[in-house]
UniProtKB/TrEMBL annotation, chains A, B:
GO molecular function, one term: DNA-binding transcription factor activity
PANTHER family according to UniProt: LACI-RELATED TRANSCRIPTIONAL REPRESSOR, TRANSCRIPTION REGULATOR, MEMBER OF GALR FAMILY
SMART domains (alphabetical): HTH_LACI
Protein's recorded name: Transcriptional regulator
Stored InterPro entries: HTH_LacI, LacI/GalR-like_sensor, Lambda_DNA-bd_dom_sf, Peripla_BP_I
Amino acid sequence: MAMATLSDVAKEANVSKMTVSRVINHPEQVTEDLRLLVINAMKTLNYRPNSAAKALAQNRTNVVKFLILEDIDTTEPYYMNLLFGIARGLDKQQYALQLISDRDKLNAGNADGYLITGARTKDSEWLDQLEKPLVLYGENRYGYDFVDTDNKLGETMATEYALAKNYQSIIFIGIDVKEPFEYSREAGYINTLQQNGLLPRIHRMANRSHISQGFINDHWAEFARNTCFVCASDRLAIGVVRAILAKGGRIPDDFGVIGHDGVFLDQVSNPQLTTVQQQVMSLGEHLARMLLSKIDQSGAQQGEVLLTPQLVARGTTRP
Amino acid sequence: MAMATLSDVAKEANVSKMTVSRVINHPEQVTEDLRLLVINAMKTLNYRPNSAAKALAQNRTNVVKFLILEDIDTTEPYYMNLLFGIARGLDKQQYALQLISDRDKLNAGNADGYLITGARTKDSEWLDQLEKPLVLYGENRYGYDFVDTDNKLGETMATEYALAKNYQSIIFIGIDVKEPFEYSREAGYINTLQQNGLLPRIHRMANRSHISQGFINDHWAEFARNTCFVCASDRLAIGVVRAILAKGGRIPDDFGVIGHDGVFLDQVSNPQLTTVQQQVMSLGEHLARMLLSKIDQSGAQQGEVLLTPQLVARGTTRP
DNA sequence: TTGTATGCGTTATCAG
DNA sequence: CTGATAACGCATACAA
């Protein structure tokens, strides 16, 4: 019992293949009665379109490539959710995914477009060479279409929350990369402090928990009680928490810590981390949808989408 | 400048399309000189086979579906590595992936086969209904082809290691599921203890760090010094570590803790976890390859593959 | 060993 | 609005 094809449905409904095809792709060009007839036939035959044939006829592949430019070992756990979001977005149009971690392999095989994450400023050179539509995950200032969390807003929320909880001094622990997402996060922090007549204090370092742990440890004398650390990532935040606890600091009474990312890492830390949570799955869906519509519109510019994050209050800030 | 096709290459090399096709799929049926001629032509034209056309002609889709039956929120971070491994395995034959988290959507769209993870005993009912080849990630005793870590060996290694480090009492903290992977892990522990004339002590609970933390806390009085906890997962192990530290127990001098999984979670814990590390990426590659060869062999049984894990000694056991 | 004809399932084009 | 025909790029079956 091979799969039913367009022709089978056509026979069943006593129409031509084209009518069936139109019912699927251009229903408005078909009269209502024929349309219903065909739909019934499709149901009784349990018709499933053959995506390979469709792809061939339309000069498509029904595949998009997802390129991850970061080191796999350092990839955040939330990528899993991102992937699920992407998968869900692609699903509706029966697109499949190809995961690529090596930019050299990007040109092997065919695809209709690219989703790219971890792109840094320097990557724009070869991004411009790509012949198919692409959408980035993560802010950029080179005009590429992208989807991201509203990083500035997120850190604004975090800083305001720290102020509302009456921490006197708010210190930003950032990641030492010169990339838009970091600038945006810092900007959210800086603006909020300035609006409250406070002076920003920013420390930047590699995004690893033992680094931030060491930093807090080494500079412990500089941090008065009643300080809240607003961190650019959950990793950094976890290290900060550990250092404070090791020094005998009391969380959240004397010290607050707020992370950023809010997927997974915040759950395994102890005490549980107050964090700026991203809607990662939703980000993935937006990514996929943006790319698909860009493909549909033969590469037309799509602009940017910034999703609103959410502050999740847990054990590392005052109740 | 459209993509070069078989015909283009054929013209360039002054042969027929079929010769070109043969050079790709059955090179042994073609004379050496023609073969080289064709290969050159392919290079100069930068020929890339059109996978949609290939798929259509062979009644394939060049897509495999990856079904994750676990709750996404509880998925382990190592899935990311698994996915990369799968992707790498699929890449060589230009297969693409479709991620599915809802078993109902398994039948939407087409695929050449299925990779399934998180399958439990009860799932065998509907697994049998599937018409395409499938390979499971994770042991099972229903005859499905599978790839997994050698769970029994892994826990054997962990238990032997604990003994070698002179912990007197070895306690197993397991997951309360009636599934083969858990039985195998327990078996490795039990056998090793019995061979050393010791009595097994097993506690089973939900696979969450705060559960194991609570358990150790509540039963603290029962655990003498010089005990090593061999845990069925890193999550459980992390909870155990936290509880011990909170009770003032000294790790690794008086208490040892060994986890299982060894991807990511072990890195963020403090102190860093001694753990049974799986070669997750390699597991993924094996999964993909097994499925692809099963597809090639029109569904022939592939058997099972058990990969050897590795014990990584870190801070939660004696040096 | 190589080439020719045909079909895979779908959509675009053009005719009715 | 509907249908016949060709085309997408490749592989199978058969013929030379």
